[in-house]
Amino acid sequence: MAHEAGSLNDIRAVLGNDIAVQSYRDGTRPFPDGAVIARLAYKYVPSEENNAIFGQAQSFVPGAPTNAQFSVKDAQRYADTGGWGFGQFEDGKPNRSAALMETCYPCHARAPTKDDFVFTHYTP
Ligand code: HEC
């Protein structure tokens, strides 16, 4: 889980398929082919309902979804981008903007080499 402040102002969950989660647990890097990591993001909104129960403003919950991003490992197919294919969906539909897709790898390439272009660490 992560919270981005600033203009994004979202709350996000990162999920992996079995291959990705097993690699996380075993510390296997690079991730093997077939690993899929999903990042789901939602607006970060105060919960008046929960705050009423707590008696003070302290509760924030996911609001409307913003977008879902995916990293898919296939070392051969995505050889030019560190072995990862990237995708973004809004409202269940793929975002086909080439300009957007060109932003993913250069930024993920800034992750430490030992982390195989992935920023998120495993939370047991
Ligand atoms: C400006 C840098 C930047 C760009 C551009 C960017 N990411 Fe990320 N991405 C991050 C950071 C930092 C995290 C971890 C923090 C977080 O989740 O809030 C992350 C997390 C992720 C994750 C969860 C796994 C991981 O690597 O931590 C996925 C999946 C992901 N990004 C996909 C994408 C896709 C797809 C694109 C392009 C559409 C993209 N990212 C563009 C910086 C970036």
Automatic annotation (TrEMBL):
Tree of life domain: Bacteria
Protein's name according to its UniProt entry: Cytochrome P460 domain-containing protein
Endpoints of the signal sequence: none
Segments crossing the lipid bilayer: none
Pfam family of the protein (one): Cytochrome_P460
Cytochrome P460 domain: residues covered: 5-120
